[in-house]
Every structure is written in C-alpha cells, then in structure tokens.
Amino acid sequence: MLADIIIFPAFSTQHNSSHHTTMNPDDFCDVNKINAPVAPTSRKSRLNLTAMVSMLMFLLVTFVLFSMALARLGSVEAKLYGYGHGARGPMLIQVSGDGVVFINREPYDISDLPKKLKLYKEACVEAGHDASVLITGDDHARYGLLVRAIDHVKAAGIEQMVVETNYRATGK
Fold this sequence. Notes:
The protein is an alpha/beta fold. The chain is built from 3 helices and 5 strands, in the order H-E-E-E-H-E-H-E. The chain is elongated and about 105 Å long. The termini are far apart.
C-alpha cells in the first residue's frame, strides 16, 4: 500500500533555496516553468490613472460644448398676463355643444361672440393695455365650433390668443 504513493519532485514539501516555486495559471502549460526562478518584484503598487483622466477630459469637453450650445440657442419671449397693476385678465371663451359659448362663464350663442369681442377690445384700448383671449372647450364641444371661435377672435383683430388643449367642465 505504501508503494502505491508516488511523490513528484516538483510538488514535494521540501524547500529548495535556489528556486522559488510558483504556481501561475500560465505556467501550467509549460512543465519547465513550474520550478523556474521568479524575478524579484517591487512592493510598491502602481496605480494607472489613464482611464480616469481620459473620462474626466471627455466629460469636461462635453460640458463645454453643451454650455456653448445653450448660450447660442437664445430665448423665446413669453408675455405673461397678470391680473394686478390695473391689467384686465384675458377674456375666457369656452365653446360647448349646440352653438353655446360661455364668455367669462356666462352662456351666449356663438353668433353673439363677434359683438362681445368688439366690446372687449374697445374696453382694453381705453384702459391702455392689449386685449387677450383664452379659448377652451368642454367635453361637448365640436371642433368646427372651436375653429369658428378662433376665426371670430382673428376677425376682431385680437392678436394675443391662447387655445387651451385640455377641456374644462361646462361653464367653468
């Protein structure tokens, strides 16, 4: 039974002072490299910062180019209308079904809209500010009536018009 145990010299427990035993994964292919002497290595660790510096430069260039593009875009002028400082609010026109139009929450027929718009524009000119209109619809409104209301506002000469895309409850 003891004769069946074979001890290979490369894997023996005896220490050979002239060679350092290494077990690198690359060395398993070549049997001659298993007991080859190892080159002395320094204990100082080396940190490679090339990838980090490259990424920081990429982010810096991206930030600079994005900032330049934003500066070149400019801005869009938006006039906001307030209710203070003597300014009237915009006229609210809500189109409903069957030709009913709510002007500042009061029901009228759509044929009354041109007259109401003319009176509103004259009142705004006398007060010294621009006339503005907000057009909206409810869940009973027809597309044709909305277009007809927009045409009446244009015919009255009112340039500042906003069309609300969400519908409101009737009369609100």
